Amino acid sequence: MRDVRVVLIGGTSNIGKSTVAEAVAERLGFEHRSTDGLARHPGRPWRTPEREVPPHVAEHYGTLTTDELIASVLAHYERLWPRIEELISTAAVWLTADDTAVRDRVRAAGRYEEATEGERLLMDRFLARTERYRTLMVDAVDALGLDRVDTGGGRTVAELADAVLAAAAAQVRPGRGDGTWGSPFVTDEETHDLGGPVTREDVRRIMAEGPWAGEQP
User: Fold this and answer.
1) Residues 211 and 136 sit within 8 Å (Cβ to Cβ)
2) What is the DSSP letter of 48?
3) Would the N or C end of the chain have less CB density within 10 A of its end CB?
4) What's phi and psi for 154, nearest 5 deg?
5) E runs forming strands in the chain
6) Model pLDDT for residues 140-169, shown as the tens digit of each residue
7) Angle (CA) 170 176 179, round 5°
8) How far apart are the C-alpha atoms of 24 and 99, rounded to whole Å?
9) What does the radius of gyration of the chain's CA atoms come to, in whole angstroms?
C-alpha cells in the first residue's frame, strides 16, 4: 500500500466507521480524520450526556419525510464530492451491516427505551433514512464492483481492520505515484451536526432529478 495516501472508509451511520478507521490508521501509522470537517449536515438526533439535540436538527428529522431525508443526505454528498475527489491516491472501502444490527446500535446509543415519545420519533425517522440509504448504498457499491466489509457476525475491531486493509491493498495499482506517503491519513465518511441542514431547495432539486442524479461513484 505504499502508493496509497488516503484510505476512505464509508458506510451508513452507526456502522462502526470511526472505530475501524482509527484501528486502520494506527496499523498504517496514518492520521485519522473525519470528513465532518469538509461539509455540514444534520447529525444524530438524540441526546447524549455531552450534547442536546439542536433545534434545527430536531426540525429536520421531525418535519421531513423519509424520501425528503434521503434527498437531503444525497444533496449533502453531491456537494461534498468535489472535495473528496481532490484526494489523490485513494483506496475506498465501504462498511455495511444488516438493518437489525444498525437499529440496535442506534437505539442503544439514543437510550431508546428511556426516551420520550418525541425523542423516539426522531430516532425512528433517522433509522428510516438510514435503512433506505443503506439499501441505495449497497446497490450502488455492488453495481460498481467496489469493496465492502460486513461489520456484523461478531468480528472484532482488529478483524475488521484486517479486512479493510486487505481490500485496500488489493486496490493498489502498480506504477502509481512516486512511492512517497506525504501526509497520509484514514478518513471515515460520516455526518454530524456542523451548523445546519441542507436547504429545502437542495431537497426539492434532488427529488426532482432522481436519487442519484449528479452523484459520483
Assistant:
1) yes
2) B
3) C
4) 75, 15
5) 6-11, 31-34, 90-96, 148-150, 185-188
6) 888 888 899 999 888 899 999 999 999 888
7) 95
8) 25
9) 18
pLDDT in tens, 1-55: 555 677 888 888 888 888 898 999 898 888 887 766 666 677 789 998 888 999 9
C-alpha cell at 77: 454528498
Looking at this protein, which amino acid is placed at residue 112? Answer: Y
How long is the chain? 217
- Of residues 195, 217, 186, the one with CA closest to residue 18: 186
Q: Which amino acid is present at 13?
A: S
| Distance separating alpha carbons of residues 69 and 90, to the nearest angstrom | 29
Do residues 167 and 32 lie in contact, with contact meaning Cβ atoms separated by under 8 Å? no
Whether the pLDDT of residue 190 is over 50: the answer is no
CB 53 within 8 A of CB 190: no
